[in-house]
Amino acid sequence: MNLQEFFFPVKFFLKTICKKIFLSILSSFGVLWLIVEIGTYFLGETSSIIIGIKEHWLIFLIMGLLIAIIFGKPKFTIGGKLNNRDISVEISIGDFFKQNGALVISSNTTFDTHISKDLISERSIQGQFTKQLYYGDEAQLDMDISNGLQDIQPITLTGKRIGKNKKYPIGTTVRLNPKNKTAYMLAIANINEYGVASASYEDLKQALAYLWLFIGSRGLKDNIVIPVIGTGFSRLPQPREEIIREIIKSYIAACSEFTFSDKLTIIISPSDYEKYKMNLDELESFITHLCKYNVFSNNIERNGQQIET
To answer: What SS3 state is found at 213?
Structure first.
């Protein structure tokens, strides 16, 4: 965790509470002004009641501060429960690797694992997952991935490449269990001969659809924790909030066919939240609407679920 993420909760709280305090104080003095104006109109400026209210203006200031403190606590987590289903959806600002549940790790269609400046960045989710937290190096990870892919026929890529030359379909998923932690490595992007990854919005939709199917047939019924996949080294151009909405819609659509998880948690990194000025209130409204009014189509296909909103 870098210093920006370490101090984020304090900065977020202060920023939110200061704004709430300012608005609450304005509202309190607005109420005071209205009472004085109405009272003066009916009772006159020399009324003892009006004079007493003016003398006790500090009470309104304190009321504003108390209201801001009580109701101004910032929300780091938002979410909702699907109507008539024991399934919850949550968005949280925090450290992806400190969450409880099965982790979704986005990868490329050749399942490259080598951590270097030319291939898999050490700063990426996959890089952190591999080197810093669960594997230490790529050897054991490569072995676990190979075991998970042994029943899938790849395409052999020709020509000189920085990475591997065995390519698997978008959406191919491998279940990993390092250090008693369940993780699903998901192929979401293609990677060229120079080690540059790229994905399309359709790739994202397809990958998500196959991910839920894989978890439903070969995974554990754990809570699922997923980052805002595709927005980093996969280079998807869509805004992060749009990616989040697509993840939620895809998950709910898959849940209409079979129950494979009771909860989905989407993690936003503190740095992304600040850098891209993400709006949790709008995302909360989206989740509330979708959870309350979700309507599932009657002809959902197993290889690409869609949800009507």
So the answer is: helix
